[in-house]
Automatic annotation (TrEMBL):
Gene3D superfamilies found in the cross-reference section: Glutamine Phosphoribosylpyrophosphate, subunit 1, domain 1, HUPs
Gene Ontology terms: biological process: asparagine biosynthetic process
Superkingdom of the source species: Eukaryota
Species this chain originates from: Aegilops tauschii subsp. strangulata (Goatgrass)
Keywords of the record: ATP-binding, Ligase, Nucleotide-binding
Protein name as catalogued: Glutamine amidotransferase type-2 domain-containing protein
The keyword Amino-acid biosynthesis is annotated on this UniProt entry: no
Record-linked PROSITE patterns: GATASE_TYPE_2
Record keyword Ligase present: yes
Amino acid sequence: PPSPEVPPAGTMCGILAVLGVGDVSLAKRSRIIELSRRLRHRGPDWSGIHSFEDCYLAHQRLAIVDPTSGDQPLYNEDKTVVVTVNGEIYNHEELKAKLKHHKFQTGSDCEVIAHLYEEYGEEFVDMLDGMFSFVLLDTRDKSFIAARDAIGICPLYMGWGLDGSVWFSSEMKALSDDCERFISFPPGHLYSSKTGGLRRWYNPPWFSESIPSAPYDPLLIRESFEKAVIKRLMTDVPFGVLLSGGLDSSLVASVVSRHLAETKVARQWGNKLHTFCIGLKV
Ligand SMILES: NC(=O)CC[C@H](N)C(=O)O
């Protein structure tokens, strides 16, 4: 799992989805926009909402990849599949290469989710390498799915309204007042409206092992660590590293500074690494 000291790029963005609310009034829409605004601090760059009958998908964006055209919700070609995502899909380019006959409308890493769903159905979640929480609505049969990354880096909550509606949100504050009951969405799980239940999509072989048996291999640890840091440099906007003063954040900063010059972001913003520390005045 990534260190919490990895730059916060992508840990923000706010999503809110309300499905099957049985109310298509303007008042309901305004209420949902108002609730989505409670997540504004998670994404100052854009606010978006898509409604289809009595289903609403809202987004507050902190733009990381393709800031100019990647506003959300995102869609498939004919806009029958709608998706609102918080997260980063690190292998989006490889996945796009598998979807040659699909037309992409944005450069967002997250758009791939709508097209993968069209191609593979809900099983596609296992193909994503990244951190994410998302809600996807298939307007053709009014079904929806929601999923959270393997270890729950991106937050997600799920709630149920008295009117039979199902809610998802990045933070509890957008659903606590309108839901009769709500839960923290379990990491590595997927909710599908078709089956009406949650199931674990993340099933690595080591889940069933009681004692991990790989021999100690420092070179492998080093390579994996470097790879994990490098793939998180996928950004079109400047970023920094939070230094805690400990070993982990120093290692992250040293790997980043060695690889910064090769990144897309360095060509535009320069290859000087910005670091931040938090201090207390006593
Ligand atoms: N902050 C986010 O969750 C970013 C979402 C998406 N990857 C983007 O760049 O816009």
